[in-house]
Write a structure and sequence with these properties.
The complex is a heterotrimer of chains A (502), B (330) and C (178). Chain A has 502 residues and is mostly helical. Chain A has one domain. Chain A is built from 23 helices and 2 strands. A two-stranded antiparallel sheet of chain A has the order 1-2. In chain A, strand 1 and strand 2 form a beta hairpin. In chain A, helix 2 crosses helix 16, helix 6 runs antiparallel to helix 16 and helix 11 runs parallel beside helix 13. The relative contact order of chain A is 0.18. Chain C is mostly helical and 178 residues long. Chain C folds into 2 domains: 66 residues; 94 residues, no CATH class. Chain C is built from 7 helices and no strands. Classes of the chains: A mainly alpha (502), B alpha/beta (330), C mainly alpha (178). The interface between A and C is large, with 79 and 72 residues.
Chain lengths: 502, 330, 178
């Protein structure tokens, strides 16, 4: 019964309980503010909790992590500025809901589904951590490359009215992602000798610009239009809704756990893949995707919170971080004198169930804090535009600066904001740009590693691919999607058949 | 009586903060060259609280990544030389000049403290068909172009260790670059690469758990963390000329910083690095505590720069010759 | 992303030009990508950028050709519907703000930016604007600078000196109260 004791540690001690609650509460706000990342908050907490007992420090940090991943959806829904890259997909359908005055309902639903996703992640962590982590590290460069390709195929889902424009935007994103010193050969790519460009263009800067700034600039067109009154009577989602969307959110949660557990991918990619999955399995959405489909809101939200549990899987069992935040957690454990690594659970047997219990507790607090603050949050959108828009600009600028304490990121954010304004104006979708930026290095680096491993031979790469069951499955999935369900394909067909008659 | 003491104390503290002469009279900013969660970040975050106590002021730690640390280096050198902006970095700047990354390296700054040094080690996937350095060399010679070596980009630890190896034996292997040693070591466990040089601290837990095997220690003698592992000089005695060599962590300020600030910082860091918690932490991870400053630090930094620069230059991936910067041959 | 009908029927003023510029830009980037490592090998650093740029060129050409076919939208004027003066003014204001941010410091430049833009867009009394500006600036400063220790550009305001003076002042007050 040791496990149960460890599990309940943070539940029974008032201090630990309080710290978890505080962490979760803070995390929601950290997550909601673009530019403030959970990674950053947790590293600040390392210094702050330096002299504390390690369990106290961990409670606070786990809370911030869980709350932060969830919090990103807030500003995505309300202002179309995703608080973090993992909330990009949430903005696609969440913001249209807010525009219709349904922000309260959208936040309520996303909260419940985030918590569902969180629990799925925790359950998989608790029951299958060793299996999943052994599976996760067998992913070879070619498998990561195929995951990247799978992700890039989402461009079809995000394209909106014109596929060519969507593909352009996606390719632009991929190109933006390659700017900087090539991490593999230190070759300069599109840097023109500018040192500030060596590290590339930060995806968060592109994201804040393309989503936040360009949207705020467009809002200036409608200064005299009255702000949409938000209906806040319904916050706790209808039981029938929860029941209806449960299968989808469970499916996308599993996507989230696996993608989160892979050391090379995190919640952002998980959420985008979940969005694509939702779009493919939902045959007849009540509202079209991109215009406020609830399926498009809950899928990424369930997936990114499930990715939290997923990211802990390789961290606790092998000492390999599942994402950037768990990398900082490993640093924190080290500073507190523990030995994060494959032996952590042998030397510190309490750590596993303590973390599971703590994550569960934090997830419950997400539900509580998530559902209580909605009224106040929804009011933000009702704030007069003349005040709200300048504040969005200010927040975007500070947020861009905070990414890496550099003014350069502000410049990029503004440049992409203005460019995004014209893209939106002329019906170019901006979603694929961010998608491309996020997936660029994953695909580029792993493609090159895969081909290097085969000494430059494409045919060897292709043949060896079928020696591994995992690679074969991934490859088949890509082919299957491409030729049966892919929007790219169907759109092309549609364009062929319904070509505008002359 | 009590009241007067307090008044006196208060007046004292007020006057000390208002007289701008004494360093430090405000928060100090520490710029970390590498990202959150990395080893430089971890080391700096674990020493800073001890330094804060010595200095009596807060150190605000900021991660400023990019250009293998060149952006942070440039940033600190663009600030005022007042001792309120510290550069917390690793060994990378010592290679900037010959790689053409920047015209500033540590020789253009004042060393506050070189805290610790790591030891490189060569590790391999458990299924790799070799267990020792000589077996590795034999196997690679027998199977040219098959063994996959992990690397972390030009100028990094792996590239320098492989340059050392290349100077001793000609080996034909595939080099697969990764974005830092974390991802590369994960790939090693998954079998995407077979062998990789890395810093002992990053691999020790995995080796102890039997998740990867240690092939050789890149040093002249065994380490007490892995007493049974033979040093590389047993197999390749010619390596002696480069060793001991290893990546390090240090704290630096801009040239021209007032002497009293430098002295206070040096004293604070020196005392903090003597802290038992810090020493335990570093030793458990296989880092050798250096805790040196002044001439001693300059000597160490210069030796590092000359060994590594010439190795990289002879291996053929430097942009400029070390001679151009007056870096002497080791 | 856009809520328009599935097929683009009309084009807005400037759309053709925009698409043409995209074609030009993509071509330039393609050339730049080619310069990274040419067509040397599939694993070269330039391979992926080159492929992306090639797709960009193709897709932007298709988009441009489509705009040639579609008729201009009626009753839509560039200056009124696409790029109204208010957007241009705000863009200019943000540009100035981001330029002076580093030299003037966060507090002064943000204050000026917020005050001017709120006054311009909201058009209430100076006092209202001033209150909103100050309040939001204080909140942002507390959250970013004090809680999350993002050291915002200090510029000409000796922030850290002021902060430490305030700190010691508070200490004295606390000591007095004991």
């Amino acid at each position: 019964m040791d496990a149960l004791n460890y599990f309940a540690m943070s539940w029974l001690s008032p201090e630990l309980l309080g710290l978890t609650a505080l962490g979760t509460f803070l995390g929601i706000y950290v997550g909601a503010i673009p530019g403030l990342s959970v990674t950053m908050a947790v590293s600040i907490l390392i210094s702050f909790t330096f002299s504390w007992d390690v369990n106290y420090a961990l409670c606070l940090m786990v809370g911030v992590y869980m709350g932060g991943v969830y919090g990103g959806s807030r500003t995505a829904i309300l202002l179309n500025i995703p608080g973090a890259p993992s909330a990009i997909a949430t903005a696609l359908d969440g913001y249209p809901l807010a525009k219709k005055g349904l922000a309260g309902e959208a936040i309520g639903l996303s909260t419940v589904m985030s918590v569902v996703g969180g629990f799925v992640g925790i359950i998989v962590l608790a029951l299958a951590a060793p299996t999943v982590s052994e599976f996760a590290i067998t992913f070879q460069p070619r498998d990561y490359m195929m995951l990247g390709v799978l992700g890039i195929m989402l461009v079809g889902s995000l394209s909106g009215s014109s596929l060519a424009r969507g593909i352009f935007a996606g390719a632009l994103g991929l190109l933006i992602g390659t700017v900087g010193l090539d991490p593999m050969t230190a070759e300069e790519r599109f840097t023109y000798g500018v040192v500030e460009l060596w590290d590339g263009i930060n995806p968060v800067a592109v994201m804040i610009g393309m989503f936040g700034i360009s949207e705020a600039l467009h809002q200036l067109h409608h200064m005299n239009k009255a702000v949409v009154k938000q209906k806040i009577s319904r916050i706790i989602p209808k039981w029938s809704d929860v029941k209806k969307y449960m299968p989808l959110s469970l499916q996308t949660s599993f996507i989230g756990v696996i993608v989160g557990a892979l050391p090379g991918t995190g919640g952002d990619i998980a959420a985008l893949m979940a969005y694509d999955h939702a779009k493919r399995v939902t045959k007849k959405p009540k509202v079209p995707f991109g215009e406020g489909a609830k399926e498009g809101l809950i899928a990424p939200e369930a997936a990114n919170n499930a990715a939290v549990g997923g990211a802990y899987i390789p961290m606790l069992t092998l000492g390999i971080p599942g994402d950037a935040v768990t990398a900082v957690f490993i640093g924190a454990l080290f500073i507190h004198g523990l030995n994060p690594g494959p032996l952590l659970l042998v030397e510190q047997p309490h750590m596993f169930w303590f973390t599971v219990g703590n994550l569960t507790l934090a997830n419950i607090f997400v539900l509580i804090f998530g559902l209580t603050g909605i009224k106040l949050f929804s009011k933000i959108v009702e704030c007069p535009k003349g005040v709200l828009i300048p504040l969005i600009f200010l927040l975007s600028i500070v947020g861009a600066y905070a990414i890496n304490n550099a003014v350069t990121d502000i410049w990029w954010m503004l440049a992409f904001g203005v460019f995004g304004y014209f893209m939106r104006l002329y019906a170019f979708p901006v979603g694929p740009v961010i998608l491309g930026v996020i997936l660029s290095s994953l695909t580029d680096e792993n493609w090159r590693r895969a081909i290097l491993s085969e000494r430059g031979s494409v045919s060897d790469l292709f043949i060896n691919l079928f020696h591994s069951p995992l690679s074969t499955v991934l490859f088949s999935v890509i082919v299957l999607i491409l030729f049966t369900q892919s929007p790219i394909w169907t759109k092309w067909l549609r364009a062929k058949i319904f070509r505008p008659s002359h | 009586m009590k009241k007067t003491t307090i008044t006196l104390l208060a007046a004292l503290s007020l006057s000390s903060t208002l007289s701008f002469a004494a360093y430090p009279n405000k928060d100090v900013q520490g710029i970390i060259q590498w990202g959150a969660g990395g080893s430089t970040d971890t080391v700096m975050r674990s020493i800073s609280p001890h330094v804060e106590k010595e200095l009596g002021t807060d150190i605000i730690l900021t991660n400023k990544t990019g250009g293998v640390g060149a952006i942070a280096t440039k940033y600190v050198n663009a600030k005022k030389a007042d001792g309120y902006t510290l550069l917390m970095g690793a060994e990378n700047p010592q290679m900037y000049k010959i790689l053409g990354l920047s015209d500033i390296d540590y020789s253009d700054m004042i060393a506050i403290n070189v805290l610790a040094r790591g030891t490189p080690i060569i590790v391999a996937n458990n299924d790799a068909p070799f267990n020792t350095m000589s077996e590795l060399i034999e196997y690679t010679k027998a199977h040219p172009g098959e063994v996959k070596f992990g690397s972390t980009g030009a100028g990094g630890l792996t590239s320098i260790v492989t340059a050392m190896l290349d100077s001793q034996v000609k080996l034909d292997y595939i080099s697969i670059p990764y974005n830092g040693d974390g991802p590369a070591l994960t790939a090693l466990q998954g079998g995407a690469i077979d062998v990789m040089p890395a810093v002992l601290g990053a691999t020790i837990e995995q080796i102890k758990a039997g998740r990867m095997k240690a092939i050789s220690l890149v040093d002249v003698e065994s380490n007490k963390l892995l007493p049974n592992l033979a040093p590389i000089t047993d197999a390749l005695p010619g390596m002696k000329s480069y060793l001991p060599w290893g990546p390090f962590f240090g704290v630096f300020v801009k040239k021209g910083t007032p002497e009293d600030a430098v002295e206070k910082l040096q004293a604070a860091f020196q005392k903090a690095a003597y802290n038992k918690d810090f020493i335990d932490l570093m030793q458990k991870r296989g880092f050798t505590i250096m805790n040196i400053s002044g001439e001693e630090a300059d000597y160490f930094l210069e030796a590092y720069r000359s060994t590594s620069s010439w190795l990289v230059h002879d291996a053929g991936f430097s942009k400029f010759s070390p001679e151009e910067f007056g870096i002497r041959k080791p | 992303m856009s809520s328009q009908s599935p097929l683009i029927k009309t084009r807005k003023p400037g759309e053709r030009l925009f698409c043409f510029l995209l074609v030009m830009g993509s071509t330039y980037l393609f050339w730049q990508a080619y310069n990274i490592s040419g067509l040397s090998s599939l694993s070269s650093p330039g391979a992926f950028p080159l492929a992306s740029a090639a797709v960009m060129v193709l897709a932007s050409c298709v988009a441009f050709l489509n705009t040639l076919k579609s008729p201009a939208a009626e009753g839509v004027r560039f200056v009124y519907h696409c790029f109204p003066p208010v957007v241009a003014i705000i863009m200019a204001l943000i540009l100035v703000y981001s330029i002076v941010l580093d030299s003037l410091g966060f507090i002064l430049s943000s204050f000026a930016f917020l005050f001017i833009s709120i006054q311009f867009l909201y058009r209430r009394s100076v006092l209202t604007t001033l209150t909103i500006t100050l309040l939001s600036l204080i909140v942002v400063y507390i959250v970013f600078r004090l809680v999350f220790q993002v050291v915002l550009p200090e510029g000409i305001v000796p922030e850290r000196e002021i902060l430490s003076a305030i700190e010691s002042f508070v200490e004295i007050v606390i000591l007095w109260m004991l």
